[in-house]
Amino acid sequence: MKEQILSAIEESIEAKEYLKEQEDSLLGAAEIIFKRFQEGRKLLTCGNGGSAADAQHIAAEFTGRFKKERKGLPAIALTTDTSFLTAWANDYEEGFETIFERQVQSLAKRNDVLWGISTSGNSENVVRAFRKGREMGTYNLSLTGRDGGKLKELSDLNINIPVAATARIQEAHELAYHIICGLVDDYAAHADRGEKWSVNK
């Protein structure tokens, strides 16, 4: 049993190591999110299962706070409206596959950020949301695993963890979005104090 514990820890560390190779992408994600917030845009997040929990976690960090006092930032988790989700999935043959697509069509505006999370990169409802977002002019940001799947190809910026185990991918995803939230916190806190802060993207 101890070997199993140590193996899980080592696998998690190994998965997170892939983020070191994507430092520029992590920084770029934070910069584009903050820039869009400054422009009056919003962030929409989505995912399934554990990734749905991650989508809600991300939105909560922005509308609430992460580690610094600042103004609230406009982020909506598409996974939280249970009345819509259950009605739409129940009433239409392909309802579950189109739940996020419909919300993007209803809520997104051009230049909003759409942040999708899928450990396989092939979650059909997230893929359809990204296709709708691309059609509407959203900036598509994704967290994926394995080979990135279809979602990688529909993304303006993709952060990928190329391992097989879903749990290890999710653990690396949490570190990735905590890094991004922390950077956006820094940008927003400086902006609240009226200090100039460079955003290059």
From TrEMBL:
Residues annotated for Zn(2+) binding in this entry: H57, E61, Q170, H178
GO molecular function: carbohydrate derivative binding; D-sedoheptulose 7-phosphate isomerase activity; zinc ion binding
Pathway connected to this protein: Carbohydrate biosynthesis; D-glycero-D-manno-heptose 7-phosphate biosynthesis; D-glycero-alpha-D-manno-heptose 7-phosphate and D-glycero-beta-D-manno-heptose 7-phosphate from sedoheptulose 7-phosphate: step 1/1
Binding annotation for substrate: N48, G49, G50, E61, N90, D91, S118, T119, S120, S123, Q170
Pfam entry (one): SIS_2
Keywords carried by this UniProt record: Carbohydrate metabolism, Cytoplasm, Isomerase, Metal-binding, Zinc
Keyword Isomerase among record annotations: yes
Residue span, SIS domain: 33-190
Major localisation: cytoplasm
Claim: Protease is one of the keywords in the record: no
EC number: 5.3.1.28
Family annotation (PROSITE patterns): SIS
Required co-factors: Zn(2+)
One GO term of the biological process aspect: D-glycero-D-manno-heptose 7-phosphate biosynthetic process
Compartments, as annotated in UniProt: Cytoplasm
Similarity comment text for this entry: Belongs to the SIS family. GmhA subfamily.
Known function: Catalyzes the isomerization of sedoheptulose 7-phosphate in D-glycero-D-manno-heptose 7-phosphate.
Note: The reaction produces a racemic mixture of D-glycero-alpha-D-manno-heptose 7-phosphate and D-glycero-beta-D-manno-heptose 7-phosphate.
Protein name: Phosphoheptose isomerase
Organism this protein belongs to: Candidatus Wildermuthbacteria bacterium RIFCSPHIGHO2_01_FULL_49_22b
